[in-house]
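INFO batch 0412 | record 1 of 1 | parsing
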Amino acid sequence: MIVTLTANPSVDRTVTLTEPLRRGQVLRAEGATSHPGGKGVNVARVVAAGGGPVLAVLPGADEDPVVTGLREAGIGYRTVPVPGEPRTNLTIAETDGTTTKINEPGRALTGPNLAELTALLVELAADAEWIVLSGSLPPGVPVDWYAQLVSTLSVLGGATNGRRTRVAVDTSDAPLLALFAESRGAVPDLIKPNAEELAQLTGLDPVALENPTAAAEAATTLIERGVGAVLATLGAAGAVLVTAEDAWFAPAPPIVPRSTVGAGDSALAGYLLADLAGAGPADRLRHAVAYGSAATALPGTGLPGPADIALDAVTAQPLPSTSVQPPTLS
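INFO prediction complete | emitting tokens
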């Protein structure tokens, strides 16, 4: 089973314009959609659509619109009750695929809330192959909370022959940097940065990291810090996967981009689905790129299902092995 944590869930609302976005103007929308969201929720939705066993963990009450949306979609979930409404994240989508996002900060979580969420993840780790920590942290949460969770969860046994539960992290900014603080004794089994987030970790130019070879070299420095695998998504260029054994690149197939919302989450879900099926690294990367590209080709906050996936259009090729010195992380 895959367990996803969404500490900062949201109602994801997308407004699709009929013309380019112009500040200060009155614009016409051709439609609007709303879905339960937050990065972990998105991963859970895609895994469930792909037939994978998944459970979404999040803060929220039974009448919370995100919880209601999961229930109506038939996706398993466990919650820690918290008062108040979830945040709304607004995406403005233009006809050429350009998206502008406005994300609210979210509901504050208290120390007891975090303790309950941690205890719930520890309980679920007994039946989990993967635990996915995704998205931003809401107000009131220490920036190193994901790092604390990685340390706690990385010693627990999972569902497959008693093997240790593996932990994947997809976040950015201070919570991402905290994963690699010198005081931390554990790092994730998988991280999924985009070029910007990879630049945050390495101090390199994010534009330069859109080059697959440069991205693989940067990812290698994280492998040297103990990360099991780095799945770096590079937008229209595709993605690279780097492990201690090898590095792979898969270019994105030709598509007509409509919205980038959920593309990274879909890529992570595709990777995890392939991993559960026993796929090797090249095929895990192919699934990631196929799922991420399928999400980009869908309008609004739509997320892909099996019928949207063009796996045959994606190929993966090995990259030369890299050897560079670890960066100074702050």
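INFO post-check: The longest helix spans residues 281-296.
INFO record closed
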